[in-house]
Amino acid sequence: MNGRVGDRLLVHGNIVGQADRQGEIIEVRGRDGGPPFLVRFDDGHETLVYPGPDAVVEPKGQLSR
Predict the structure, then answer these.
(1) What proportion of the chain, given as a percentage, has pLDDT over 70?
(2) Is the pTM for the entire model greater than 0.70?
(3) DSSP readout, the chain?
(4) What's the rounded Cα separation, in Å, for the pair 24 and 41?
C-alpha cells in the first residue's frame, strides 16, 4: 500500500458497531510512498499508522463513496 501527502486514509471498523475512520496523510515515513503514514483523522487526532487489510488509500482529489 502506497500513499502520498494529501491522500485520504480510510480505515474500516473491524468490530460490529465500530465506525469507519477517515483522515488525511500528512507525512509519509516509509520508502517509496509506503507506510508508516502520519495521519490527521477528521476528529483532529494525529497518529502514526501502519495500515492493515481493513484500510484503503484514496488518492487526493478522488471523491469518497
Answers:
(1) 95
(2) yes
(3) ----TT-EEEE---STTPPPEEEEEEEE-SGGGPSPEEEEETTS-EEEE---TTEEEE-TTPPP-
(4) 6
